[in-house]
Design goal:
With 395 residues, this protein is an alpha+beta fold. It is 45% helix and 16% strand.
């Protein structure tokens, strides 16, 4: 069976993309310092730092409170006195107390010493327990909380509890709000070439992370192509998620095959059958470990389209954490980079398939091979470090 309309659509799209890539190359847009230094996914080290520097009235941009003023106009916030405003990153607002919904560290904190704005910046990290609730209880009568994500997603129920969106807290997105703000900052930086180009590079990075076309002319051309071939575009669109799911399952299966070859018979490696189900992935259990403890790679919540984490899984309701933490905590491997949650005593990020550019690696032979080896080695290292330490807990 042939699909001439679909084939023509793909051919025309390839032509537009090839032209766009050539224009980007000629304009030097492929040289992006954030990408080159592998800083794309670092929430605090890259994104909070860059935004905070622009927002701070005493930032190195030498624009005073202009960028902060433009930001407050974009989000519609008039609570902050610009003449008294300051910005702090990783602001400590008290010892974290989940029981009383208090404390923690705010990614970007804006204050005029009376009123405050708390911005929780989420690129790929998971929500902390009762995080938005804790921030909303800070400076309660004079505080506004914003939850910033790539596409304006809402906070998880574990974070927000019974708080009401657009009443108790507000969502912002990089895709619309932040890019719109940055483009206004860009206009105000026309006479400062280094500042202007730095903001421009960051906008290009954000458009990449939010799957937007960086060239407006190309975007208009692609929209026109879809409008003229709508049925063919729908057919292709419907097939994409199925292909992504199928390819991700093959990817996970191949990782499992390689792990089984390198691990001893005391290990059991299983891949969930349907990665379209939330919280599925690869589970690696050891017969010498206590029950309900395993190494796992898991989607947050679905591997093919969202971020994935890996680590030691041991739900608090089923496992006594104290001896487990005592056993693993003595090893340098677990001293940095890992987070803790109700389900995971140790977890960290590993795959970013919520980024279409990362997901596309599954369809490139060499990049796919590199990714398989990377994940296999990370899981293998975790198994080897943990094997004897956790076996000592089994009674």
């Amino acid at each position: 069976m042939t699909y001439p309309n679909e084939k023509k659509l793909i051919q025309d799209a390839k032509r537009i993309i090839a032209h766009h890539n050539e224009v980007s190359r000629l304009k030097g847009e492929n040289f992006n310092v954030f990408s080159i230094l592998n800083m794309e996914h670092k929430e605090n080290g890259t994104h909070s730092a860059f935004l905070g520097e622009l927002l701070h009235p005493k930032g190195s941009h030498s624009k005073g409170n202009l960028f902060l003023k433009l930001f407050l106009e974009i989000v519609g916030d008039n609570t902050i006195d610009l003449e008294k405003a300051s910005v702090v990153l990783e602001k400590h607002i008290g010892k974290r107390d989940d029981a009383n919904l208090l404390g923690g560290r705010v990614d970007i904190y804006i204050t005029d010493q009376v009123n405050s704005i708390c911005i929780e910046n989420k690129i790929y990290a998971s929500d902390q327990n009762v995080q938005i609730q804790r921030y909303c209880n800070h400076n309660k009568e004079n505080n506004t909380v914003y939850y910033l994500t790539l596409n304006g997603s809402d906070a998880s129920s574990e974070s927000k509890g019974k708080l009401v969106l657009d009443k108790d807290y507000y969502c912002l997105s990089y895709k619309t709000d932040i890019i719109e703000w940055l483009e206004t900052c860009l206009k105000e930086s026309a006479e400062e070439p280094i500042l202007r180009e730095s903001i421009k590079q960051y906008i290009i990075l954000l458009k990449k992370l939010t799957n937007q076309l960086s060239n407006k002319e190309m975007e208009n051309e692609m929209h026109k192509l879809v409008r003229e071939n709508y049925n063919a575009a729908q057919t292709i669109s419907t097939a994409i998620s199925d292909v992504e799911l199928e390819t991700t399952k093959q990817f996970a299966d191949e990782i499992a095959v390689r792990l089984r070859k390198e691990l001893s018979n005391s290990w059991r490696v299983e891949v969930d059958n349907d990665l379209n189900d939330p919280w599925t992935g690869i589970t690696i259990a050891n017969v010498n470990w206590p029950e309900n403890i395993a190494v796992k790679l898991e989607g947050q919540s679905k591997i093919p389209w969202q971020k994935s984490i890996y680590g030691i899984i041991a739900t608090k309701e089923k496992v006594d954490r104290a001896p487990l933490k005592a056993a693993l905590g003595q090893h340098d491997f677990f001293q940095s980079g890992f987070r803790e949650s109700q389900v995971w005593p140790y977890n960290r990020d590993i795959l970013y398939f919520n980024d279409v550019n990362e997901r596309s690696k599954l369809f490139n032979t060499s990049q796919r091979e590199d990714l398989i080896e990377l994940v296999k080695e990370k899981l293998l290292e975790l198994c080897e470090v943990s094997e004897t330490l956790l076996a000592s807990l089994k009674k």
